[in-house]
Amino acid sequence: MKTVYLCDSSIEGILSGVYQAWSSKKGHDNVMLRLRDDGVTMELFCQYEEVSADTQKADKVITAIRDKISEEAYEAVYKAALSNDSGRADKIYRFLIHGFRTGARIVSMLQIQAVYDVFQMCRFVDNETHLLTGFVRFSEMEGDLLVSRIGPKNDVIVLLAPHFADRLSGENWVLYDTNRKKAVLHPAFRPWYLTELLSPQWEDKMRKTSDEDEYEDLFKRFRKSISIRERTNPVCQMNHMPLRYRPYMPEFSQGLKDV
After folding, report:
1. Contact in structure between 107 and 100 (CB atoms under 8 Å)
2. Ranges for the DUF4130 domain (predicted)?
3. Which of these, 16, 67, 135, 152, has the minimum number of CB atoms within 10 Å of its CB?
């Protein structure tokens, strides 16, 4: 009977699941990792076990990956864990099975399905991160606080934070992921940090940005100034600026016609 380990969707949760499955000694073909909230129906003739996120177990797996495979392999695992692929936990596990057998060369062996799967997830995460570095917009709140709301498919907020910490190092800003209810907070001239404890009042406050936001007005005026009505090409626009990003961009908010 196959044992299915149900783990948390965080990197710590997934690697805790890897640790539990590996140390069970049941054989790799007899175990499987799944996320608790993956929405997949439970299978017959399978034994399901809950795995709690354990920082110590996750750290042991991370150390083993870095020492016995490579730093590049760990970076691939970390990015894959940020993917929205519901099967990412087991795909990471299968990748590590090959990685611990092969060593550092595993990252270039894309002919292996498990390796290909992980690097496909990494590619999607990297692509979305790259796009959002250009599409993220900040609005000004009271107290000179800059706020940006995003709704990415993948959990890329921690990959975006260093980019904006470098470019807005002297500003107080918040980058909020509306899909996962987590935020990066950056005090001016200080390191940023991740939090998942924002109160409903904070969420509501971030929606109600100032009506006289200079940044929003700037983006609207810029969009209007460069547009040429006779050359409007909706298909080209959607290729360069997908519709799913526009609800979070002030130049596409209401009031553009009045600028």
Report:
1. no
2. 88-251
3. 67
Separation of alpha carbons 79 and 118, rounded Å: 9
* Torsion angle in degrees (nearest 10) through CA of 195, 196, 201, 206: 60
Q: What is the pLDDT along the chain (259 residues), one digit of tens a residue?
A: 899 999 999 999 999 999 999 999 999 999 999 999 877 777 778 899 999 999 999 999 999 999 999 999 999 999 999 999 999 999 999 999 999 999 999 999 999 999 999 999 999 999 999 999 988 988 888 778 898 989 999 999 999 999 999 999 999 999 999 899 899 999 999 999 999 866 666 666 666 554 445 556 666 666 667 666 666 666 666 665 666 666 666 656 554 443 3
**How far does Cα 136 stand from its chain's mean position?**
14
How many residues are there in the chain? 259
Measured from the Cβ of residue 9, the count of other Cβ atoms closer than 10 Å reads 20
Q: Collapse the DSSP code of 48 into the 3-class scheme (helix H, G, I; strand E, B; otherwise coil) and give the result.
A: strand
Tokens at 29, concatenated: 């073909």
> Phi, psi (5° rounding) for residue 89?
-60, -50
Which residues lie closer than 8 Å to 207 by C-beta, 6 or more apart?
Answer: 149
- The one-character DSSP state at 175 is E
List, in sequence order, every residue forming a beta bridge with 180; answer none if it has no partner: none
Both tokens of 21, joined, read: 């499955």
